[in-house]
Design goal:
By secondary structure, this protein is an alpha+beta fold. Among the domains are: 32 residues; 340 residues, Beta-lactamase (3-Layer(aba) Sandwich); 61 residues, Trypsin Inhibitor V, Chain A (2-Layer Sandwich), CATH 3.30.10.20. 33% of the residues lie in helices and 23% in strands. The chain contains 19 helices and 30 strands. The strands form ten sheets. It has a six-stranded mixed sheet with strand order 7-3-2-12-20-21, with no helix packed on it. Strands 14-13-25-24-23 form a five-stranded antiparallel sheet, sandwiched between helices. The protein has a three-stranded antiparallel sheet with strand order 1-10-11. Strand 13 and strand 14 form a beta hairpin. Helix 1 packs across helix 2, helix 12 packs across helix 14 and helix 13 packs across helix 17. The radius of gyration is 36 Å and the shape is extended.
Amino acid sequence: MKRVSAVTVKKRIVAVFLIGILVLGVIDLRLGYVQFVIGDELMEKANNLWTRDIVFEPERGNILDRNGDILAENVSAPSVVAVPRQIENPEDTAEKLAEVLEMPMNEVYETITQNQSSVNLRPEGIKISEEQETQIRTLNLAGIYLAKDSKRHYPFGDYLSHVLGFTGIDNQGLMGLELSYDDKLSGEEGSLSFYSDAKGGRLDSLADVYTPPTDGMHLQTTISSEVQTILERELDLAVAKYNPDGALAIAVNPKTGGVLGMSSRPNFSPENYQEAEASVFDRNLPIWSTYEPGSTFKIITLAAALEEEVVDLQEDEFHDPGHIDVDGAKLHCWKSGGHGHQTYLEVVQNSCNPGFVSLGQMLGTERLFSYIEEFGFGKKTGIDLRGEGNGILFDPENVGPVELATTAFGQGVSVTPIQQVMAVAAAVNGGYLYEPNIAKEWIDPVTNETIETMETNIKDQVISQSTSEELRHALESVVAQGTGRPAYVEGYRVGGKTGTAQKVGPDGRYMENNYVVSFIGFAPADDPEIVVYVAVDNPKDTVQFGGVVAAPIVGRIIEDSMQVLGVEPREGGLDKEYQWPDQPKVEVPDLMGLTKDELAEYMVNLSIETNGTGDYIIDQAPSPGTEVEQGSEIRIYLSNENDRASE
């Protein structure tokens, strides 16, 4: 028998011991790696295997106007969630759900028998009605849950539709402000997690885990719902009266660049956008459409000429025979036969094309186009909405005498409405070109405290304060004494400019009797609080002039907006020069205390509506001193002498 030496035994024991230590070391390293390195990952995978989640959507943030009035909000509309493994009788459940949701029974059955942890019945089971919610709760079906959900509601209907935009079935922003600020409005999802066995059955012995959703923040805008209502009203009236191909209106605060109102026709209902054609809701005309601006663009030529001191409006004169010859081309004035001899202030008042051609020639290509660029044309304004256009300008290197001349009076260039509004706002606010904005503040939905305030962005000062002041005076004279008379508002010192632009057809030629007529106005002229632009595309059954169609609309918008914005009437403005068939307004006399027999000598140009009985006038409306149109109705209230004495 072979004998093993003690040395050999010792070596074997050491070897086994070392191998044991090595194996234990490997196990320890593996355990350490699993616990400390990939432990969280493995735990997450395990949780995913034996937990089920029901997702809860957050409440989307409201959109508010400048005063806190709600423009977009949420209304309760829960969604149906099914957990297939918890459904006890799929056929019966499918039949009952199909009846409530008005879905095919086989479609419901296929959905609720899927091998999934949870399923949604789309789209009929998403954002169901209050009546459907009550019916499903009454059925009390196993494995069927109602997840808290909501749908978007716009209290003002189709007002502001292109600006607000709309959301999809999953509350994601698809257009307008809803899309631009979707990340902050949408919030973060929450969930209810419960534990289940291998077959998906609920484990009641383990507590559910609820993670609440984080609601989206409220967005306060620069929009004034009162001004917006006025814009919508006037566009509706314009559509009814002129049956145009389209119409739009924009109102901004020239001191901040904040948009007070914006609308266009045709429009749509944000809650039912699927019913409108994509060409309607996809195109926000005030920022998307481009067309030749016509005479409203003359404001830029005038601002450049005044800033460069190439003209004195009061002293320098121009003779308009009805046309001007430029490099072999004859450019006509809108008035047949021309305006004859006039100062350059009258050139502005009369919107005389040849006169503005001469201003463009005085400036030259380099200077005129540098101002056009500085006023923001040819590039996006940066407004916080998607889909803004750039407009089209001549390349200065390719501008000849004719292109310079036509550009000076707004022909041959293409601009967007928002570019025009911001450029004119800069021209009248002291020369400051702002980036237009709609978002104003972000508000915490729980505390209602302001979290973030948007800063106004001044891009540049394009003209001096003195030039801006002189320009305002000239444009005020356009409304008081020139082509913009229909926009005149007693007491509010309105300035502005008409525009009548011939449209270019598909063949590249100008269309016959098809114009975009416009007017851009501001008030008060000495310290502007609002700039309003209205454009009407191809109005029917009327003379297609901006002064005839658009100017009266802007006048009414400004008059009503001044009141809702709390702007007091101004004194010291220019008096309106009346032309036939216009009639000057008359002042309402003080009739209080007079007898009926004494009325005749006071009421030559006014009509009377009598209220009450008696011989003496104890009250009247409008009040004494109010200026009204000739023929307006005055209401008087009568009583006898004793009643009058008791007053």
